[in-house]
TrEMBL record, chain A:
Belongs to the ABC transporter superfamily. Gene3D superfamilies: P-loop containing nucleotide triphosphate hydrolases (3.40.50.300). Transmembrane segments: none annotated. Keywords: ATP-binding, Nucleotide-binding, Transport. The lineage of its organism: Bacteria, Bacillati, Actinomycetota, Actinomycetes, Kitasatosporales. The keyword Nucleotide-binding applies. Pfam families: ABC_tran (PF00005), oligo_HPY (PF08352). PROSITE patterns: ABC_TRANSPORTER_1, ABC_TRANSPORTER_2. Residues 19-262 form the ABC transporter domain. This is ABC transporter ATP-binding protein. GO terms for molecular function: ATP binding; ATP hydrolysis activity. GO terms for biological process: peptide transport; transmembrane transport. It comes from Embleya hyalina.
UniProtKB/TrEMBL annotation, chain B:
This is Peptide ABC transporter permease. It comes from Embleya hyalina. InterPro entries: BP-dependent_transpt_permease (IPR050366), MetI-like (IPR000515), MetI-like_sf (IPR035906), OppC_N (IPR025966). It holds the Pfam family OppC_N. One of its GO terms (biological process) is transmembrane transport. It is found in: Cell membrane. GO terms for cellular component: plasma membrane. Residues 101-289 form the ABC transmembrane type-1 domain.
Length: 334, 306
């Protein structure tokens, strides 16, 4: 993996290139219910050509974060910038052209393609919207279909003629037509069967490398994220608890939650060890625990954890963790 | 990186180089089983409409007499000379019924198209943009729907003056809200769908989403509604003429002819034949509407059959 050194170079030289989230928070308001802070202050950066994996349990705010990152949801606090400029929340106006390089691949390929339009038309939309001709769009659609591993002749077919994996490839082709420099992929493989998962994940990885596209890969499938991500961020109940280069986080997780999450991945090493169970369930995000959001389930929590909200501190280059118990020790190790 | 590829490939079965077989889309036969257009109802409907259309196009050739000529004794019962008899002014009723198709069918078609276009555009805009536009449009629709259609249409014609143009206008005014409601509901659910979001991210404006993304999704339901509405339109228009608010004498219009017949019940043929024409055309349009729904919206059709 040469990607690691590449990543650090990029972060040094071009601070504002790519997608950056600054202390982003997103809330859901519904009548008669308390405010839900689905994302509670997350900072992340995705440089061009970099693959960032965002992992966490269901309901921890991963998808909400992805939607807010591209402007489909309005942030309640913090900022999202793309190439140094603030990302607008989609309203009634068309999206400004300088933000169209930031695209999204959706989870459900059955919902993300218009059932009543030919796939060629849908792929060529981006070209036509960027001012290109229909012929140019059709040509692009044919090229991109081949790039994602489908036949160019499929341009005139309708989505119902394809399987889930093929649809997801078509959705990726549509996104590519916009010539993106950053793609947010919100659980792009969760709805697919195992063989399609691998090929779609590999396709996204290849595209990120060959076109120098930043990829925010949101997934709950740790083993896939481990395989394709350069850096990984672990999310728990709306906050990032640990982040760093994938291999390091995987081999040496520091935060008790990442430890538990990673050890929960079954290993075929023949030792017969069962994963360690975390006590309890993910709390209701409408009533998050005070202090550290993880403290009720944390094996090493102290009384102070119920009060202090830990900050994400960098204890090694590129490695961060949010834990007040570990904080002194972490820096010493570094 | 190579290691990555191998690992995933081994673990999950590589389909990196998709073989033609794998990627051949599952082509389904478009319509398995019987086409709805072959059902007896559809055939009957098509046949009746066909007969009426031929009558409308070739009315002057087919009809035995001039529909306005008053050269025969009045109130003659049906006979070999006058199959449908003659009316209170001694006009040939068969010729008048045939010529009536030239008023009822094109006008019904015209007003349904008008109502469809107006209702669809307003409903789509209200559903997509929401806010005050939605409020204004839908409250207007509610206002119209709160009146019985024929009463409101009468009021409109009474205000504008009784003639055929105003009657068409009145029927359009009472018909558009149905389309607006249906389309607004569809747009409300579709606008949140992933494929609309994806198109917005590519830079599509709201208008483009409506015109390009949602139009094909709305076309089917709206077409079904329009086909079912054609019968209604014929009925409403004849109703207004029956009340003396639509076609004015001496025009050969079915509703007006029924009205003339209602003055003299002894001469049953004066009202019965134009009335039967109204009945048959409405019935045929409804058959066609049902068939169209079966063809375009098999899910509802199946639910109804059960």
């Amino acid at each position: 993996m040469t990607a690691l050194s590449g990543t650090s170079n990029l972060t040094v030289t071009s601070k504002d290139v790519g997608l950056r989230l600054h202390d982003l928070s997103v809330t859901y308001r519904s009548p008669g219910r308390p405010l839900v802070r689905a994302v509670a202050g997350v900072s992340l950066a995705v440089a061009p050509g970099q693959v960032v994996g965002l992992v966490g349990e269901s309901g921890c705010g991963k998808s909400t974060l992805g939607k807010a990152a591209v402007g489909l949801l309005k942030p309640a606090g913090g900022r999202v910038t793309f190439n140094g400029r603030a990302v607008d929340t989609l309203g009634l106006r068309p999206r400004p052209s300088d933000q169209r390089g930031l695209q999204m691949v959706f989870q459900d390929p059955y919902a993300s393609l218009n059932p009543r339009r030919r796939i060629g038309e849908q792929i060529s939309d981006a070209v036509v919207l960027a001012g290109g001709t229909r012929e140019r769009g059709r040509e692009t659609a044919r090229e991109l279909l081949e790039r994602v591993g489908l036949a160019a002749e499929f341009v005139d077919r309708f989505p119902h003629e394809f399987s889930g994996g093929q649809r997801q490839r078509i959705a990726i082709a549509r996104v590519l037509a916009a010539e993106p420099s950053c793609i947010v992929a919100d659980e792009p493989i969760a709805a697919l069967d195992a063989s399609a998962q691998a090929s779609v994940a590999n396709l996204l990885l290849d595209l990120a490398r060959e076109r120098n596209v930043g990829l925010l890969f949101i997934s709950h499938d740790l083993s896939i994220v481990r395989q394709i991500a350069d850096t990984v961020a672990v999310m728990y109940l709306g906050t990032v608890v640990e982040s760093g280069p994938t291999a390091q986080v995987w081999d040496d997780p520091r935060h008790p939650y990442s430890k538990a999450l990673i050890s929960a991945v079954p290993r075929a090493d023949g030792s017969g060890e069962l994963p360690v169970d975390l006590p309890g369930d993910v709390p209701d995000p409408a009533f998050p625990p005070t202090g550290c959001r993880f403290h009720p389930r944390c094996p090493i929590a102290t009384d102070a954890c119920e009060v202090d909200e830990p900050a994400l501190v960098e204890f090694l280059p590129e490695r961060r963790a949010a834990c007040s118990v570990l904080a002194p020790a972490l820096t010493k190790v570094g | 990186m190579n290691a990555t590829r191998l690992f995933l490939g081994d673990r999950l079965g590589a389909d990196r180089t998709p073989s033609p077989d794998d990627d051949a889309p599952r082509r389904k036969p478009r319509r398995a089983g019987k086409s709805p257009w072959r059902s007896p109802l559809a055939v009957t409907g098509l046949a009746i409409i066909g007969v009426f259309l031929i009558a409308a196009v070739f009315a002057s050739l087919i009809s035995p007499e001039d529909p306005l000529a008053q050269k025969w004794p009045k109130y003659q019962s049906p006979s070999g000379d006058h199959w449908f008899g003659t009316d209170q002014l001694g006009r040939d009723i068969l010729s008048r019924v045939i010529h009536g198709t030239r008023i009822s069918l094109p006008l019904a078609l015209l007003l349904v198209v008008l109502a469809m276009v107006i209702g669809t555009v307003l409903g789509a805009v209200a559903g997509y943009f929401g806010g005050w536009i939605d409020m204004v449009v839908m409250r207007c629709a509610d206002l119209v729907l709160a009146f019985p259609a024929i009463i409101l249409a009468m009021a409109v014609v009474a205000a504008l003056g009784p003639n055929l143009t105003n009657a068409v206008l009145a029927v359009v005014i009472v018909s558009w809200p149905t389309y607006a409601r249906v389309v607004r509901g569809l747009v409300l659910t579709l606008r949140q769908s992933d494929f609309v979001q994806a198109d917005r991210l590519l830079g599509a404006s709201g208008w483009r989403v409506l015109a390009v993304d949602l139009r094909p999704n709305l076309a089917g339901p709206v077409a079904v509604l329009a086909a079912l509405d054609l019968g209604n339109a014929v009925l409403l228009l004849s109703g207004l003429s029956f009340l003396g608010l639509g076609a004015q004498p001496p025009a050969a219009e079915w509703g007006a002819m029924v009205n003339a017949g209602s003055a003299n019940f002894d001469a049953w043929w004066v009202a019965v034949f134009p009335g039967a024409a109204i009945l048959l055309s409405v019935l045929a349009f409804n058959f066609l509407g049902d068939t169209l729904r079966d063809a375009l919206d098999p899910r509802t059709a199946r639910a109804i059959r059960k």
